[in-house]
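Can't paste images in this forum, so I'm doing it all in text. The chain is below; anyone willing to post the predicted structure tokens underneath?
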Amino acid sequence: MSDNKVVEWKELLKRRLAASKKDGKTEQEKKEEEINLFTKHYLEWRGGGKRDFSYKNIPRFYYRLPAEDEVLLQKLREESRAVFLQRKSRELLDNEELQNLWFLLDKHQTPPMIGEEAMINYDSFLKVGEKAGVKCKQFFTARVYAKLLHSDPYGRISIMQFFNYVMRKVWLHQTRIGLSLYDVAGQGYLRESDLENYILELIPTLPQLDGLEKSFYSFYVCTAVRKFFFFLDPLRTGKIKIQDILACSFLDDLLELRDEELSKESQESNWFSAPSALRVYGQYLNLDKDHNGMLSKEELSRYGTGTLTNVFLDRVYQECLTYDGEMDYKTYLDFVLALENRKEPAALQYIFKLLDMENKGYLNVFALNYFFRAIQEQMKLHGQEPVSFQDVKDEIFDMVKPKDPYKITLQDLVNSSQGDTVSSILIDLNGFWTYENREVLVASDNDSSVDLDDT
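Text version of the structure:
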């Protein structure tokens, strides 16, 4: 700050103060005026004559959701979201535009072909991008081309691979928009009721579910929704991110039911197929001997091969949600999903929580012995010679190789890829017997294959 400016500023302040002495103001008022005057001139000097309003350039990052009684605001928000989603939908390629893209790609293919696969080089790729229209612009970039470039000696990419990439992207965006229509809160996630509505309205579009009775729809929807929530909501928050739904394969499995020619094997392995849903619900009805719509511990003990230990079943009824000591269909579905998918981290988390009786976050020798003793008792009941716990314990620790040699954590089980075997040894006599006789079973399988080859 130059000396001239300092003098100027001081003189101005003195004149203002001298003028203020003649107006008959109190000392307090004069002091406040002095402070305000100083602040004004100081800020003008700091900002070159302008006050600093840079804080106004910070973007707004929080928008309060309308309260339940703010009906007008809620309606406005719903309408604006619907308009936004419609606009996004119009930005996607429709069937006619996709067909036109295929014709352009085919027309600009670059010889020679690799087998029956048509290829395209980068120059032709860019030419197609110019002719394909604005909607396709996002796909015709160097990054996309590089992603699909593999080992072609001429530096070309497969037309079919590129077209499938575009189709997949369009499908993902369509599906995201479709799911977002059911996102009542507009926060990027679906609650259980939202996903139920989505699947219920999807049923008529899936030819493989044509044979389902309408009276079974509610049970089918419950069966389908549980798989999403069991695996994608491990903390049981009651909601799933739409991004997580798109990233997993479950939606692919569900929409696979659009295929009218789906093989019997594919239907049996698909949790969402009619035969699979009827199988699970049929098992539940068969277990429910007193037909009260719920399962007691005794009824559940007949699940599968009927060889789950009483100790494990006790833990199921202690930890899982029950009603007067009985299990409903939704809780049963979680139980089935855990036992049928023991290799998956979410299933291991479910089983680990039951095995971790003291809620310590790890399994020690005491916990292993507690559960294995029930296996030994079952072996005695079936006239088998009980196996030494010491031997089994050593085998379990050798399989898992935990970080702490005395404790097995859930992460240890997941990392070892042996969680399914360990859980089977501890909770199911049949699972333990299969493990104990694995070498004999492998040998008999080999013998069977040799016999088949001989014939």
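The chain is about 60% helix and 0% strand. Strands lie at 119-120, 157-158, 189-191, 239-241.
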